[in-house]
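Dear support,

We are seeing what looks like truncated structure output for some complexes. This example has two components. We would appreciate it if you could run it in full and send us the complete token output so we can diff it against ours.
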Amino acid sequence: MIFSAFVENPFLQTALWASLLAALASGVVGSFVVVKRIAFIAGSIAHSVLGGMGFCLWLQRTYGILWLDPMIGAFAGSILSALLIGWIHLNYRQREDAVIAAVWSTGMAIGVIFLSLTPGTNVELMNFLFGNILWVTTRDLILLASLDVFLILATLLYYRKFLALCFDEEQALLQGVAVKRLYLFLLSLTAVSVVLLIQIIGTILVIALLTIPATLASLFTHRLHIMMGTAIALAALLSLLGLSAAYTLNWPPGATIALLAALAYLTALAIKKRFFKKRVALPINIED
Amino acid sequence: MISFDSVSFAYDGHPVLSEVNVEIFPGELIGIMGPNGGGKTTLLKLLMGFLLPREGSIKVFGAPPEKARLSIGYVPQVHRTDRDFPITVLELVLLGSLSKTSFFGSYPASVKEKALDLIEKLGLSEHKNKMFGSLSGGLAQRALLARALLSDPDILLLDEPTANIDPPSSLLIFDLLEEMKGKKTILIVTHDLRTIVERVTRVLCVQGQVTSFLPGHICEHFALGLYHTPLLDLPKNHLKKSPDDLFCIR
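Here is the complete output from our reference environment:
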């Protein structure tokens, strides 16, 4: 029944393609987010996107600037917040978490205010917040595919530098890597991925698709590129299963995918604990 | 040559090092000692250009530290590395020559060969494809040393390389350092008095300021039961040696 629905229903077909394209971004960038431990930063970028979206939608509806699509606002908002958060991380480490939380809520607040000022129905707000994969158009698919190509090329070219950056910034610096620039670039890639994923799962749940498949993959591999490949496959599988479950149960697709991902992670943890040996723990040393 | 000229450094207004004047000559094997929080690691980070002095200047081969980074190999404390990171021992060692990768990010064959040689020399051959985080402390420390040596740096900095590691690993590391004595400038942060007495040519005591001692004098200092007495608060003749013997640079 589900299979025939995917074959016959053009909305579901578009949704399926969108899921697969988003899985690429989720697996590649999500792996960097997980190993670099910047999930909180990614969450902040995801929520700040709402500011840009709300602003563009308000301009579009109030002043009739039709070309100003909310997606343009999403990209601008995500890149701006990524660079701002990156700058805070590089220059203001002492209170970094609190300041990033402030950026997070400020972005959302701007978005909510502009959306409330926007004339007409605000169905977009729900779509932005919780995602609506059936809302994806062919034009969005082309955009998703183009950005995937960019993400993959950037990762192929900078893979070893990203590896060094994520594992040991000091070593990367000693080897002549422009760590600050590369870090801001990584955050910008995260921002782009966030925008791609928001269409599938929404602002609030995007962090689930960005972190859970990669975290799940990390349980069973000790090489970053294998982790990325596994995470792509897992994100695609989880999106597909989530979409099918949502269609069958008439649940919201984004929330269903996020819930399924969390269940898969818990199951994997239990399997790993039961069947795999625990790693050697290091003794704690006294810090200088 | 490395020189610190009237260097002061503070974290958010809290002074850590003040008026540091030190010269380190090529080929020296220097032990860095001092209490926790005394500024030992800060001294190394200043030397690598990761931190900038509030006052004074640092020169490494006549250039600012950030311009001389490629001539420095650094072995951090093993517990400060991310043990959950998905990276194999070979991948980690290869990061020591990241600057030699091609445009597409691949390593030259000579670098891979050298990495494998170092891995073998440090007794890590059977672990080269294992996850770095799965190694014991001693093996992990050896892997970090291999990474630091891969680019054949002129200066090698080691931050407590023998803390919490097994004696065979410790011995292997020091035997390797002994081989390099006179060929590379080596600075080693350690609390291990035996290492200081037996291995190094000079000791820098770091405790807000930096004072240079001969290794034997440090031993005598500890023998007098002055471990908890700040070294810099003591009169310079407390070791009952002539001031010239103290080799004081401050």
